[in-house]
Amino acid sequence: MNKRATLAEIASAAPTQTLTERAYRDIEEMIVTLKLEPGTAVSEAELSQHLGIGRTPIREALQRLAREHLILILPRRGILVSEINVARQLRLLEVRREVERLIARSAARRATPAERERFVELARLFEKSDRINDDVAFMRTDREFNMLCSTAARNEFAAGAMSQMHSLSRRFWYLHYRQAADMPLTAKLHADIARAIARGDERQAAQASDRLLDVIDKFTRDTLTAA
Fold first, then answer.
1. What pLDDT sits at residue 176?
2. Running DSSP on this structure, what letter comes out for residue 46?
3. I need a labelling partner for 84 at 20 to 30 A (CA). Which of 33, 72, 150, 200 fits?
4. To 10 degrees, the CA torsion angle through 177, 182, 185, 189?
């Protein structure tokens, strides 16, 4: 396959989501934005009816969410949305800092031209979500940004590690950002990473990632005193 064909293929419309992917996306957003609060019991039947998706895709999505620690599947007790724990979140950030730096650097080196263009657009979307104070838009942009970083890095092991951390991080941020977070700064730092990756600047991408994690770590610790 030549380079021109590859870029044309990437630039074409994204493949249609499977029902499992749609179920995962919708349930993950419900958990992250606290429509399903920590400790809430959920059932395949209720989610199937609410989302209009069959129970098999719902079951597969729930299994993925369990691997990402957003839900607990308890034999003979049902399915619960996992609780939020600050100490656990801090341990998560120790790992996330190292992996996210690697992903940012690798994405800056390996991203395709089409992916670099999308990183530029995502930087604009981060800044727009802050201007209009739209937290859900920010979360959706962040989710796409994380997925694009993992794709562009082209390291399936790093991507697998990050997939288990980002949803938990977004949920924690959504719960606490009004009391302890600086949304304009958070949006700017995400945009800085996106633009560094778009430029192919590995050093700046890694440094921007560290600056973001510094802010997230402080924010996480500040929730202890803001509670």
1. 86
2. H
3. 150
4. -30
Map residue 79 onto helix, strand or coil.
strand
Which amino acid, residue 125? L
Q: What's 36's DSSP letter?
A: S
Q: Set out the domains of the chain in order of their start, with CATH numbers.
A: 19-81 (1.10.10.10), 86-226 (1.20.120.530)
Per-residue pLDDT band for 180 (boundaries 50, 70, 90) equals low
80 phi, psi to nearest 5 deg:
-125, 140
The dihedral over CA atoms of 14, 16, 21, 25, expressed in degrees to the nearest 10, equals 60
Separation of alpha carbons 40 and 36, rounded Å: 6
How far, CA to CA in Å, does 87 sit from each of 2, 153, 177? 49, 29, 17
Q: Degrees (nearest 5) of the Cα angle 183, 187, 189? A: 115
Q: What was the pLDDT predicted at 226?
A: 60
